[in-house]
Amino acid sequence: MSKSAREFVLPTPRVTPVLDPWFRPAALAVREVRRITKDLAEARLVRIALEQTDGSVSHYSLSAFPEGHPLESFTNRLFERLMKFLLWARGGYRIYVDGPASLVESLKAHYTQNPRGQFDDLVIGHKIYGHAIEVVGTSDLPEPRSYTAPLGRHLEGNRIGFDLGGSDRKVAAVVEGKVVFSEEVVWDPIRQADPQYHFDGIMDSLKRAAAYLPSVDAIGGSAAGVYVNNRVRVASLFRSVPAPLFESRIKELFLEIKRAWNNVPFELANDGEVTALAGSMALGENGVLGIAMGTSMAAGYVTREGNITTWLNELAFAPVDLRLDAPVDEWSGDVGCGVQYFSQQCVGRLLGVAGIDLDPALPLPEKLKMVQCLMDAGDYRAAKIYQTIGVYLGYAIALYAEFYDLSQLLVLGRVTSGPGGEIILSEARRVLDVEFPELSSGIRFHVPDEKEKRHGQAIAAASLPSLSS
User: Fold this and answer.
1) How many whole angstroms separate alpha carbon 256 and alpha carbon 276?
2) Which of 4, 41, 98, 376 has its C-alpha lying 20 to 30 A from 124's C-alpha?
3) DSSP-assigned beta bridge partners for residue 227
4) pLDDT tens-place string over residues 95-147
């Protein structure tokens, strides 16, 4: 590809991340392709339908450069990136493509021959949906079908709510919607291979909360990962557990915990979904996309009607940066994915560029604490890290708006704590004002106050099970 073509398809952002001038936002590339192909007579509208095992079908379309065009290869790469976004945001295993034959063949090869595509095939296809990812070239796309359902909001009785993160676990005792006890305990689940470590840690937190309740009527929890009927499909918390032990113990770990609590109503949900639910409950608003920047990145979505969808919302794996040499996700091996821009991992990788020299052996949570201390002291180097993350976020929001009907953006997590969080939101708003004014006026930011942070997620998690379930 020529230099002029590269500059055309990967436009330079008008607001540059101070520590990452090489950032090339996917949102700008999509907008530019849409603008140019609008007046290109040979442009072809590519339509995509993504099907889940329950029959849900979601659509996406974008005009592309025609076959034989000098930028045809970029069309294939752009749609592979957008397809990855769709897979991790919406979920599905069968991909219908009404587009050029070269694009269909390119996608087929990606999921069968490219290690990054093979990761998606293994995790999304086989582990989550029980099928290999299929790419079907056809002009006869299935009609869109969506299934939504209410989530939580049950507050009656004596409940326990818990949230399992990569560096800490939180628990709360809730009586008639009011928190009577809450606690945060440091743990290290991601590096633990023994399932008993996970079981004992969760049970310990539940027992501590139960001591403050006259009875335990229901238990609700949130954790990073994909869960179906309280069964673990994929979860970063259990990455170190060997596959045989995952199958024999982890997959039904929460059903084991439920039995240990006399089979009281028990409900487990993705932490991003519970984050969005907590925001919706606190704001009294819907159309909420929640983003939590912690050990990893979590996301969840509540529709304008106040329901959840069958989407995955695993935006940690969704690409936001299209440069070929973008930062690499350590788990999937893919580049430009959200986790490297909106988590403690992002803070860690920006330290050296910012001129902050810390012991490489320090765990990421400790590195974040050091950066927060520097920020509290007014250190300009720490401020640059937060400014960079804020610019990343602004451009990512524009991309998310391609796929989510949102009016509220809830932002939380340890990375956003303190004055650095204010800088992140200020920079994100600046990006929207400068680059996407049509979005800026329609999306409100919300950061939970300390009470919401301590109790909102716990109350939302505790509200998941119905007492009649």
Assistant:
1) 27
2) 98
3) 232
4) 999 999 989 999 999 999 999 999 999 999 999 999 999 999 999 999 999 88
Separation in Å, CA 158 to CA 40, 172, 184, 222, 260: 62, 11, 20, 18, 17
Please tell me the number of Cα atoms within 13 Å of 425 on its side-chain side: 18
**Residue 455 scores a pLDDT above 70:** no
Between CA 148 and CA 336 the distance in angstroms is: 30
- For the record, the structure tokens of 433 come out as 């004002």
Q: Which domains does the chain have, with CATH numbers?
A: 40-137 (no CATH), 149-469 (3.30.420.40)
pTM for the model = 0.86
Amino acid at 248: S
Whether 334 contacts 116, CB under 8 Å: yes
Distances (CA, A) of 388 to 38, 165, 267: 32, 24, 37
CA distance 281 to 82: 31
Instruction: Output the pLDDT for position 7.
Output: 38
Q: Is 3 helix (H, G, I), strand (E, B) or coil?
A: helix
Pairing of strands 297-302, 288-293: antiparallel
In the numeric block, which tokens belong to residue 450?
């300390």
**What is the distance between the alpha carbons of residues 418 and 403, in angstroms, rounded to a whole number?**
30
Report the C-alpha gap between 217 and 211 in whole angstroms: 13
Token pair for 200:
């004992």
User: 103 Cβ partners below 8 Å, 6+ apart?
Assistant: 46, 64, 75, 76, 79, 97
pLDDT at 355 over 60: yes
pLDDT digits (tens, 9 = 90+) for 192-218: 999 999 999 999 999 999 999 999 999
Residue count (the chain) = 469
